[in-house]
Fold this sequence. Notes:
Elements: H1 12-37, H2 44-51, H3 55-62, H4 65-77, H5 85-95, H6 99-127, H7 132-158, H8 168-178, H9 181-190, H10 195-210
Amino acid sequence: MPPVNGRRPYNSSRRKALAEQTRAMVLNVAEQRFLQDGYAATTVASIAAAAGISAETIYKSFENKSGLVRAIYERGLTGTGDTPAYRRSDDIRERIDDPRELMHQWGTLTAEVASTVTPILLLIRSAAATDSSMAGLLEASNAHRVERMRHNAEFLAERGFLKEGTTLSDAIDVLWTVSSPELYELLVLQRGWTPAQFATFVADTMSAALLPPRT
């Protein structure tokens, strides 16, 4: 039966979907402008104009320019899959018993995430020299990655996967290095490696540095 007043019932799911589409569109436009023009030269007004919306809409959703960068960075961390990368990483740990296969899967996931998050991390690193909000975001990003690598290193230690003499600190440092934006920048962005080559390099490096030799 139609509503008595003749109006259509409120469709909250449709409104939510439209809001998510608008948010994604704004982040896509903002990321393009930031990477093209740099952090300092990009304004909220220019992003709003390029996106065809009001600057007020952006401020309501992201507060300011640094909030936009943070949102782009956090989106990059999820990778390109439907499930966030950190959840897939934890799922891989639970499913795979062979440590070398684990490294292979982690290498593939590392390359995927690096492809989405490295460009914005390099922007943050550059802007951090003169902008305190970007310096804070860079510090938070580094701290988050250290904790994530500690999480993975502790798993390797608990499962007895680490080779003799490898400390937890050693494992964290190796995982921290291969997941760094600097390594992806050097090999993929500067030297032209493919993501597949990078994934293999990461997996082989982790295996050689952390696992016992094959018997």
